[in-house]
């Protein structure tokens, strides 16, 4: 099951997904999507990151945790 978060503003559920760069390099790109895909679904957040919601749009995004 993919990690998901519910928007406080809209009530929609967003799932964390990941993809590799199109040029083939090994950089992971994390993003929230409204659907769970068969590939690229993340079971948990990347280490050192938390979820924050934009107060203006209600969209979630990853933010690096401060130590």
Mind explaining what this structure looks like?
- There is one protein chain.
- The mean pLDDT is 85.
- This protein has strands at residues 4-6, 13-20, 28-33, 49-53, 60-64.
- A three-stranded antiparallel β-sheet has the order 1-2-3, with no helix packed on it. It has a two-stranded antiparallel ribbon with strand order 4-5.
- It has one domain (4-64).
- The radius of gyration is 13 Å and the shape is globular.
- It has 67 residues and is mainly beta.
Throw out a few tags for this protein.
single chain, about 70 residues, mainly beta, two-stranded antiparallel ribbon
Number of domains: 1
What is the subunit organization of this protein? Answer: single chain
Instruction: Name the average pLDDT.
Output: 85
Strand coverage percent: 35-45%
Order of helices and strands: EEEEE
Radius of gyration, in Å, reads 13 Å
Q: For the terminal residues, how far apart are their CA atoms? A: 29 Å
Helix proportion range = under 10%
Secondary-structure-based class equals mainly beta
Largest sheet data: 3 strands, antiparallel
Which regions have little confidence, pLDDT < 50, spanning 5+ residues? none
Q: Using the alpha-carbon principal axes, give the shape.
A: globular
Number of strands: 5
The strand order across the widest sheet is 1-2-3
Helical segment count: 0
List the helices and strands and how they pair.
Elements: E1 4-6, E2 13-20, E3 28-33, E4 49-53, E5 60-64
Antiparallel strand pairs: 1-2, 2-3, 4-5
Q: Can you describe this structure in just a few lines?
A:
The chain has strands at 4-6, 13-20, 28-33, 49-53, 60-64. The chain is mainly beta and 67 residues long.
């Amino acid at each position: 099951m993919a990690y998901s978060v519910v928007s406080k503003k809209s009530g929609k559920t967003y799932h964390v997904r990941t993809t590799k760069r199109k040029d083939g390099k090994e950089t992971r790109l994390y993003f929230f999507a409204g659907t769970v895909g068969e590939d690229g679904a993340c079971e948990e957040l990347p280490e050192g990151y938390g979820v924050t919601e934009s107060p203006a749009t209600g969209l979630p995004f990853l933010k690096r945790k401060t130590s």
